[in-house]
Amino acid sequence: MLLEQLGAPVPALPVLLLAGAKGIGDSFYLGYALVLAIVASALGDLAWFWAGRRYGHRVLRLLCRLTLSPDSCVRQTESAYERRGAAAAIVIAKFIPGLATVAPPLAGALRLGVWRFLLYDCAGAALYYGAGLALGLVFHAQIHWLVEQVEGFGAYAVLVVIGALALYVAYRWWDRRRFVASLRSGRIEAAELNEMMSRGDDPLVLDVRSRTHRELDGRRIPGARGVDLDDLEGTLADVPRNREVVVYCACPNEVTAVKVAMQLRDRGFRRVRPLTGGVDAWVAAGLRVEGT
Fold it and tell me: CA of 156: how far to CAs of 152, 167, 239, in Å?
């Protein structure tokens, strides 16, 4: 549980199922397993919570680089906060792949009280881990049969499990790299965008980070228009389809910006490009930013 919450690609659900199957008829064992899982999860989440409290949006950017899930995990978590509030977002986070690791640092960055965070976090952990243990109880016969089959293979079973885990991690890494490689074309560099703006070409610059991220970061490219993805049509209703449009976000691979650019092209915008490196590349180039 601790390793999973710290972000390691170690699935906790099989351990929960096995613990539930072993606890058949032993309520003390099940209670002990549940408490241990909640405590381990809280320790891992607290580490990310304090990192988010201290480093803010930079931690979210780091997670985008480290996670095997798509960069949109951060965007999904921010959207969950905006739509459902902190309590619901933290409680449901463990049930949604990718969100469980991102939710704690986001809560810290948003200055949620530590005791409120622990209350919501432990409630979500109790629901998630309790469900895993309950499933182990329900299917205890099948799980015991599977364990016996694995034990029959001895050391070979261990090698198979390690090999399967290695293949899973390798596949997720390869899938991520393939996805990132597919997004490399059709972008604009910060220097080129700055030249266009200096010449008076008047490109429309869209900031497609979530409202939460824009508030946490506090930086934006001069003249950029903040866009909520749920209201693209309303935001761009008065924009000519032949206007030059540049889209930027905060993900290291500009995943959100690329997706928005593709949506805009489907809506008739033909001169739309994502900004390579997003707002961080703009700042790194020494170009002026505005406060949000």
Answer: 9, 16, 63
